[in-house]
Design goal:
It is built from seven helices and three strands. The protein is mainly α.
Length: 232
């Protein structure tokens, strides 16, 4: 079988850990940098998102204040756009970029963007698999049950699939935000470039998550002897 405290795990996951650290530092650094730069429109993040939504026929989408640093998200279940205090109230290019990115998800939802529909469908099972996979693997180790261990790997595969489909969803939302920020008169073209840097940095965190999910899946496949022909 395989063990949780395994040097191989650290070796396999090291690239993901490094990439995650770089992505987090870059996202926070870029956000903080442009959080000090006010947009010429003097719109707050909430106002910018409201304008983008309204000008694209999405008056019914509600904008709410959320808690936490960069906890911003769009919820397709109740059609709400939830913005953190650093985004909701600020008049910065960072705040506007993030807010318009979340509004971009609302546009995806309204236009039936297929990758978003797939990701939304995967949310319930991914919420279970993200925790359930480790529990199933643990039970498989304790019971010496290879079939159960393989089921745990399938759950890790679902997590990777979710991380993978998230990439086009996030990239497309940023692309929509960059276009609409200028088209809707929220920022000047030169300002959109700087606001877009925040979104580009944030996208790297999703790449890091996908790499981490892939390497985790590969590790357990190796430990099960399903990859590389080595079974412990």
């Amino acid at each position: 079988m395989f063990f949780f405290y395994d040097p191989l795990f650290l070796i396999v996951m090291l690239p993901a850990m490094i990439l995650a650290g770089i992505a987090t530092a870059k996202t926070q650094g870029t956000f903080n940098r442009y959080a000090r730069v006010a947009a010429s429109s003097r719109l707050t993040g909430a106002q910018a998102a409201r304008r983008m939504l309204d000008l694209n026929g999405l008056q019914e989408v509600e904008i709410r204040r959320a808690r936490g640093f960069l906890s911003d998200h769009y919820n397709p279940a109740n059609r709400t756009l939830n913005l953190s205090p650093d985004v909701y109230d600020a008049q910065s290019l960072s705040a506007i970029g993030v807010a318009c990115h979340e509004a971009g998800h609302a546009l995806q939802h309204a236009h039936g963007y297929v990758p978003l529909q797939i990701r939304s469908a995967l949310v319930p099972i991914t919420q279970f698999s993200s925790y359930g996979a480790y529990l199933v693997i643990l039970l498989a180790v304790l019971m010496g049950n290879l079939v159960m261990a393989k089921f745990g790997v399938v759950l890790f595969g679902i997590g990777f699939l979710f991380a993978l489909v998230t990439l086009p969803v996030e990239w497309d939302a940023s692309a929509r935000a960059k276009r609409q920020m200028v088209a809707d008169g929220i920022v000047l073209p030169s300002e959109a470039q700087d606001a877009g840097k925040v979104l580009d940095a944030a996208f790297l965190t999703y790449v890091a998550a996908a790499v981490s999910a892939l390497l985790t899946l590969l590790y357990y496949l190796m430990r099960l002897g399903l990859l590389g022909g080595n079974r412990d």
